Every structure is written in C-alpha cells, then in structure tokens.
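A quick aside before the break. I want you to see a complete sequence-to-structure record at least once, exactly as it would be stored in a machine-readable document. Don't worry about memorizing anything.
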Amino acid sequence: MRTQQSPPPRRVLVVDDDPTVTEVVAGYLDRSGFVVDRAADGVDALARAHAAPPDLVVLDLMLPGLDGLQVCRKLREERPVPVVMLTARGDEEDRILGLEVGADDYVTKPFSPRELVLRVESVLRRAGAPPPGGPLLSGGGITLDPDARTVFDARGPLALTLREFDLLAHFLRHPGRAFGREELMTDVWGWDFGDLSTVTVHVRRLRHKVETDPAHPRLIMTVWGVGYRFDDSGGGRDA
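That is the input. The structure line, written in tokens, reads:
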C-alpha cells in the first residue's frame, strides 16, 4: 500500500541587512515549516534566488547597494515570485512604490514576526491556488479568458500582473456592482487582514492599462463612500 508523500517544504528567501531582524524572521519561518535562505544585500539576494529559486521572498526596502525596489524588479523579470516587502518608513509613498513594482504585500517595521508568518502563508496560499476557470468574460470592450489567462481590448493584448488579472476578472464577473475595498481584499486577495492601500494601488494600476484616459476612467468607477464599480457600458463618469 502506497503512502501519500507530503509536499516538499516551501522555500523562503529573507533579505535584510539587519542580522537581528533576519535571525528573528528566519527563526519564526523555520518553526512554521519553511526552508529559509538568507541574504544581507540585493546582489547576494539575486544570486541566491538564481541558484535556488524561492517560493517567496521577504524583502527589506532599504538595502545597501541595490535597494529592495530594484531587487523586486529584477526578481520579477526572471519569474513571478511572490514578494512580501519590509519597510521601516512611515511614508505611504514608499509602501505604494513597493506594490507598484510587484510586491504582493508589505509589513511595516516594527512588526510582529507571527503576523509576518501569517502574511507569508496567505500570499503563498493565494499564489498556489488554481485560477478559477470558466467561459470568456467580456465588458467595456474587454475580453478576458480565465483559462488561457489572456486579456484583449480594441488595442490588442493587455499585459496584466497576476493580481491585476484576478481583479479585472472579478469586476467582469460582477458588472455594475459596487465593491468596498474590504470586499475586494477578501474576494480577490483571499485575505481577511492587510493594508487596504493594496487594493487602491492595484485599481490605479489596472486603470492605467484598461482605460483610454486613466485620469477620467469610464470603466472602473470610484463609488464614493463605498469603493469601486465596473461599468459594463464603458460610458460612466468618475464622480
């Protein structure tokens, strides 16, 4: 009788130039069953990620040499590895920059190591979930194929990130319905916690890719006091 083998442990690369932070984070991840690799700067992080591709990267924004934003961009050029960004800054713009270069989530220092582990587990769970298939979705001149993971409009194919694709698919499945950011965080990201600016940034990025004039959107509308709504007719106005 064959016994079912357990899946191999997930590999996480922790990148931080503060050895105390690295030690604490690596310890918590190790106790949670992850295989942990460590790097103290951006160049070493890229080398380690190339030699042993991680399932996720915990990446500090402020690094000597290559900073976290540059490292995230270079990692994403090779493959779509999930990234959780660490930042010691209180400036929201820094956190938004991290999300705009492709980070899946961020944690602001000082943070609870247990919360960081939960974020890592949540991001990996979402990244490993099979994408929902189904028939072609269309609206506002956009056609999305959930199975092929392709999107087209009158201009041709659109290059969307994993999360942008899922967000657009969710809007197309529910045209005309207004969603709060909390709802979108749960439905699209699969998180019941996290900073809601993640949703705001991804909506903004998606508008830049699907709207003819992102400054005056006609498809993804802001519903003040609620959140966002996809206008199937493409004739709305952002109030």
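Two observations worth writing down. The mean pLDDT is 86. DSSP finds eight helices and twelve strands in the chain. We'll return to this after the break.
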